[in-house]
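Ribosome-associated protein
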Amino acid sequence: MLIISNTVQIADSEIELTAIRAQGPGGQNVNKVSSAIHLRFDIEHSSLPEFYKEQLLKLSDQRISKEGVIIIKAQQFRTQEKNKADALDRLKQLILSAVVQPKKRKATRPSKASKKKRLDAKTRRGHTKNLRKPVASDD
């Protein structure tokens, strides 16, 4: 059972885990041991609340297919157990990131003091640049 929050849990039967051979370097071990994990999770047919399902399907994440299936491939570690834990953790983080509501931005104005400070700095900078001009001759 994968626990997402206090009220939301996913049964193990809803998550399909398959052991596959990992890609990349690793010598003989990588060629003969199926240590990578391929995780598949169908959003539509899961027991997640409707709000979670809607938010997940709205995400534009490459791990979510057009059919609404989350596919995660974990092959970072040498052991199957660590890769399985990594895949489940990544699934949990994806679900949690989908339901986080961003804070609304409050429009603010700069204070009078900050406006005055900015204008004074611009004046000082302009004066410094003015001093760089060549001196005019009085002929």
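thats it. The radius of gyration is 28 Å. Residues 80-99 form the longest helix (20 residues). bye
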